[in-house]
Amino acid sequence: MKKDRAFARRIKALYEKQGADGGDLRSEELSTMFDLFLGKKYDERRKIEIARVQKDLHNKQERLASEFHAGDLSAEQYFNSLSPLIGEAFAECRRILGPKDFRKLFGASYTKETDFVDRSAFLESTATKQAKQPSHRHWQVTVFYHDGEKFARVYTDHKKAAKFAERKRKSAVVKLARVAPLP
After folding, report:
1. What's the Cα-to-Cα distance from 133 to each of 79, 128, 129, 136, rounded to whole Å?
2. How many Cα atoms within 13 Å fall on the side-chain side of residue 100?
3. What digits encode the pLDDT tens for the residues 74-118?
4. Which one of 2, 146, 155, 157 counts the least CB within 10 Å of its CB?
5. Residue 85 and residue 56 in contact, taking contact as beta carbons nearer than 8 Å
6. What is the pTM of this model?
7. How far apart are CA 32 and CA 64, in angstroms?
8. In which order are the strands placed within the sheet that holds 139-145?
């Protein structure tokens, strides 16, 4: 319990320090998890491998989410595609860490049969959100440059917004390009 409270405090401080537009903090969150739950001197090679697995999962999840939000995937298709990706990532993390360290880091054991996302809760929540959504959506692409400057552009087509963000990410002067739905 002490470690969980310490983790919550450190994550809160991380987000307060960075602010809402501070970029992607997932790697810092993972580093905090390793430090608190497995120790600061934990095997660096394993940390790097877990970070790679996490980044790969997030990239795949973002692609699926883009297709879902663009209307190219139904909620059911999204769920059926996402659940195995999470399972594969957890299996790879367990292989890298071993069962004992996996449990320490993620707070749960891993079995192939585990449902990582509650199907009915997910489908119910997406049905509620989709019922409330207007037929016309807007997507904001925010580009963060290494020199601290920001730029934003709004699109009505999610695919065009994602394509623009992807083009910007290829630039050496761009730190981060993010696509987010506007309320």
Report:
1. 19, 9, 6, 8
2. 1
3. 888 988 888 888 889 989 999 999 999 998 888 777 666 566 677
4. 2
5. no
6. 0.62
7. 27
8. 150-155, 139-145, 174-181
